[in-house]
Amino acid sequence: MSGLITSLMRNLLGYSDTGISIPPMDNMFKPNNRLEAAKIVTRIDGLDDIAPTTDGFLCSARDALLRVSLGPDGARVEKLDRLDGAITFLAARADGELALATEKRGLRIGRPGAWRSVELPEDQARCLTAGCFLPDGSLTLCVGSVRNPASAWKRDLMQHGASGCVFSIAPDCGSVRMLADGLGFPYGIVSLEDGALAVSESWRHRVLRVETEAKSVRPAPMLSNLPAYPARIAPSAEGGYLLALFAPRRQLFEMILIEDEYRMEMMETIDPSEWVGPDLRQTDDPDQPLQQGSVRQMGILKPWAPSRSYGLVVRCDASMTPVESWHSRADGTRHGITATCERGGVVFAASKGAGELLHLSDEREGAQ
Amino acid sequence: MAVSDMLLRLRYRIVPDRLFGELLTKSWIDNVIPVLVLAVTVLVMTVLIPGYLSTGNMADLGRQVAEFGLIAIALTIVILSGGIDLSVGSVFALTVLTALVCMNVLGVPIGVALAATLGVGLVCGLLNGVLVGYLRLRAFITTLVTLVIFRAIYDIVFPKLASAIVASMPSSFLWDYIGFGNVVGIPISFLIFVAIALVVHIVLSRMRPGWRLRAVGGARRSAFNAGINVKLTVCMAYAASGVLTAMAAFLFSARLGSTGADTGIGLEIVILTAVVLGGVSLGGGRGSVGGAIIGTVLVLILSNSLIRMAVPGSLNQLILGVVLVAAVLFDVKWVKNRGKILSKVYVSPTYLALKERPRVAEDPVLAVNDRLGDAQQIGVGAVEGPEDVILDRDGNLYTGTRHGNIVRFFAPDYNTHEIFARVGGHPLGLAFTRDGDLVTCVGGMGVYRVTPDGTVHKVTDETNRSALSIIDDSRLRLPDDLDIAPDGRIFFSEATIRYEMSEWAVDALEGRGNGRLLCFDPKTGTTRTLLRGLVFPNGITVCRDGQSLLFAETWACRIMRYWFDGPNKGKRETFVDNLPGYPDNVNRASNGGYWVALLGMRTKTFDLAMRKPGFRRRMAKRIAADEWLFPNINRGCVIRMTADGTITDSYWDADGEKHPSITSMREHKGYLFLGGVSNNRIGRVRIADADPDWTAPDDYWGDAE
Amino acid sequence: MSKSLLIKLMAVAWVVFVPFAAQAQNKGLENPRSTAFHGELEGKNVVFLPLSMGFDLTEGWAAKMRQQAERLNYNFEIRDPAWSTDAGTRALQSLIGEKPDLIVAHNPDIQSYARLLARAQAEGIKVIQINLESNTQTDSYVGADWTEIGQQAALAVVDRCAEGKGVSSKVAIDTGVPTAASDVFQLDGIYRVLDQHPEIEVVSQQATEYNPEKARAIMETVLQQHPDLCGAIGIWDNQDTGTASAIQQAGKGDQVFLVTSGGGNMVGCENVSKGLFSLYISYNVPLQGDILNAEIARLLRSDADAGEMKAMYFNPLTLITKDDVNQRNCWTLEDLQ
């Protein structure tokens, strides 16, 4: 009751309850349907990360490492290896050397069939979310969180996780050097023109610039206030970058993140698949939480309805300023884009939510 | 956890948060704050000034209130019309002069003097009225100019007559009586004032001239478009102001017997203060006589008390000026923010705990299947919002749409349809009487009956008002479903009394028992409320014993049984509890049991939210309505249960494209017809083990005569 | 008796009686009237209801009354209606309810408080009216005789502006509040004299409501219409500063004979010295204050009922011209406090 009276007085005096606001999808982020309209290259269930090779891609999908070759008569998918658990990231060096990690056994470097394990502390090894080879041969890695494994990213979000870090391993598996820590789930890493690194910090919805040389310099934000959670970053032609964003931000989710009592009880008593929060795909399960605007009216789900998942790929220029974007909205299926890759001037996106590898058309081709 | 839950439950049962929001919806709420301020001021003054509440003091106050109050009412009338009258002070002075000249100088009888005074006031008011009403000049500037003109006239005439006025005193008994007389200690002028105030209040609030006045003040263009003669109304408002001011002047002259050069100077400011303090909005259209009187009393008490406490005169004026500024500021903020406050404060969620239940997927009876996947689609896009479906003896299908029509699909293939009747609102529940009339609950309107030839008659749109409810619950806001007892009585549910049809989703967020069960008796033609405080009562069906009925309480996920006749009359018990979803309509099945439509499924997160009322309140205030957590009504199903409440099977649309949410189902000759309030089609599906000859009219009324 | 016994007796008498003799000096007699005078008034309530506080007349009277209240130990209070007749009426009405022992009333006009003062007397409250009368006569009146002031002012003007004496025979009159005692009775006095001198022409008679700005504007207009104005009669020095400034601005300070009246404040006297006023009729506020105090003391001690015996005193006037501006005729507020 006192809350009502204080809110009455505050309203009378002109203060309004500060709402929970998220950046609107505007300007370069104006929603469109380009992801839905994109051509599909191939269907791979559980597709997560992609790395370019000379004649195609390498993809990680669940526990399998696959090679996708692009030929005149379509794409050919070939299984290269099956590992002991879900692969959490995949990176490829120009000379064909690969790096990947699984939750159970941690980091491996080498080639299929000839893997060398790299010893890392267990709490880091089980949550390696992204990696990138630097020109000098060293491997930089993102650890999403030291408190939760990679598959428990939802729990880390709900716990306001800020235990992620970025480190580099010298070539020949030498020393490990910590470049930045205390990050909120770093989920993408790419090297910039000047030798520094761009790291996407998901829970703080921004992209940071991490210095490789001087460690005392704190990471500076390059692109912040994103309307969705950023995932892996890939280099693009003409010095730009491609940013995949795997799940949307919503007012309700932001509110849950500050409502401690509700959130704690939700985490303790309810299965993570039924939590109120972002997800990689829409589920048809009747046990799933719903938002009022997502109710189907007259048989139609409006594209702007609030949804738990969303498909978003953004191309940025060299200074990480967005220049164009591809969307898949509430009424689409190609959500949960976790990785992108540009090869031969064409952009490819991995939609984990739909399990599809997509060929994104360019603006010049005029498809909207 | 359990203790804190119990405390939470207790807190929400005892403390009635909803009252605050409901009070804010009332139109008289604007007066509450001035009354409170008045009460506080009187209290303070009684403490500071000994002997404040003596009869003599009150009688004096009464006389002053009489004069000030009449002018305050005059100004209220003008402000209600959307204008302002700054010339009241000068009109007051002129009419005082008229009254004194008539009585003291000319010595005419008191009746003539009264007529002359009121006449002068009328002329002054009409001048204002013609300038502002007919010539469309701005009220502020115009009355400012007439203020100057009238005062100039007064300044010219008064000195010439001054000596004559003060030289003699009239010898009229009535004159003295008005000025000084008391009846049982109450001054005569106060009684005159009360009589006039009552008349004006009744005219303003309950009669057409008053409504027209408020309409013109509140929204001039709309009033014009509605056919109100705006110019005449405005002119009459100023004329009324002039006459009332003249009456006040008459009382003043009787009391004082003389006038000075400063009569009426600054009066408009004091009266304006009083009127604004009393809650009359300067923007027009809002205010009342009561408010003006409260403001007058407040201002008089304040200024009298300040003089009484020997406060220097200039400080007196300063204090009154500060009070005026504060009152105007408050008024502006209140008007601007009242709607906003109301919308934020009205939603008052409460604690609702549902029992735990296992996941739907793990229950063999309730697991998702696709039995409705290939339902025949009827009327896709032709009907929008078919909440309930019903079939007559010939097998024709009827349903209500959100365009206010009842649409009939023709048997046997239902490919053709026509509009059977135009009712209005959104017809929801449907039922056939013994004679074949279609009775329907129309959301937003009431219960209506359609005869077989398509003529619409009203059955009822009101019920008895409960004494303790702040909301006027004699009106029906959301009558949802109905059923007809063997003796013709119509039992129907009203889902919620706090929200309109368009906001039913907010009631889900509240989880309060805002609904009720009503009964219309055709023998007496009246409707009575039987049960109150039900949690969104929805589907109703009369049991086969003819003495009890089942009703669904949607957000509580249960179906209750209520006996309305027989030895158990009045008894209410739970029929089936802890349903996996939210029950909407309940109808009879051919195997002796019942069909229940679950319009959505329970989700753990929403169940948790129902146990956290504070969370829901913050959610309602802080984030947009589109983003609120909601029950999953994108997936619904139909369940069939036996006559004792055991669920035997469930029917789903697996991918949720055709029938995501089902609000009603009817069995007819082996088929099940499906309706959904957010859908744009009706579905028909064959039920394998249903009696192929069974129809509802036969089950209810036996064979046709 | 032996000589030694006599000497011893005398010694004893000396020892016994001398101290008595030494103490028994003449200490005088207690004056019961003085004791009564200083004691009887204790705890009584006197309320002053002026036109308004904040100008010389009322501040002067209030200072005097306060002095006596402190000296004789009774309560003195002021209710200030700030020039509003309506507020004053309401204050008087509430005073009637409160029943103080004595009200000192300053009437805005002769009718407004009339009935109320009669009621106050009926309720047993003693009333003194100061300087501005009403139609009701109460226990006492102390103040100027306005008729007399009017006559004196008119005589002075006639003296100056009669046939052949001044530049013309035109006279302007500015009044204050048409229904106040200062207006109605003063005009009567003025016209009694002027009626006997028909050659004097009254070219303007307007009310200024005690507002110097209005007085100035009126005189400015009059001078434009009648540049050969000879005399002007104003009813109060505080407002006639405006009249005077209009005359000075038109450069007719020597031509126009301005008569005014007031309480005799030093400011008014200085205006006379400066030549703004040609004749100043003073009703002498300190003198009025003293008489007022005497009446207050008398009435408070009197056993008579309120209104039973009605007294009045019109105090003598002092005519001040440039030559007799002096300390005795002119007062400042500091002198009185």
TrEMBL record, chain A:
InterPro entries: 6-blade_b-propeller_TolB-like. This is SMP-30/gluconolactonase/LRE family protein.
From TrEMBL, chain B:
It is a multi-pass membrane protein. Residues 480-566 form the Strictosidine synthase conserved region domain. It comes from Pacificispira spongiicola. The chain crosses the membrane at residues 32-53, 65-84, 96-127, 139-157, 177-204, 230-252, 264-282, 289-311. Signal peptide: none annotated. CDD domains: TM_PBP1_transp_AraH_like. This is ABC transporter permease. InterPro entries: 6-blade_b-propeller_TolB-like (IPR011042), ABC_transp_permease (IPR001851), Strictosidine_synth_cons-reg (IPR018119). GO terms for molecular function: transmembrane transporter activity. It is found in: Cell membrane. Keywords: Cell inner membrane, Cell membrane, Membrane, Transmembrane, Transmembrane helix, Transport. GO terms for cellular component: plasma membrane. Its main location: membrane.
TrEMBL record, chain C:
Residues 49-301 form the Periplasmic binding protein domain. It comes from the Bacteria. Pfam families: Peripla_BP_4 (PF13407). One of its GO terms (molecular function) is carbohydrate binding. Its main location: other. InterPro entries: Peripla_BP_I, SBP_2_dom. Keywords: Signal. GO terms for cellular component: cell envelope. It is found in: Cell envelope. Residues 1-24 form the signal peptide. PANTHER family: D-ALLOSE-BINDING PERIPLASMIC PROTEIN-RELATED (PTHR46847:SF1). Belongs to the bacterial solute-binding protein 2 family. This is Sugar ABC transporter substrate-binding protein.
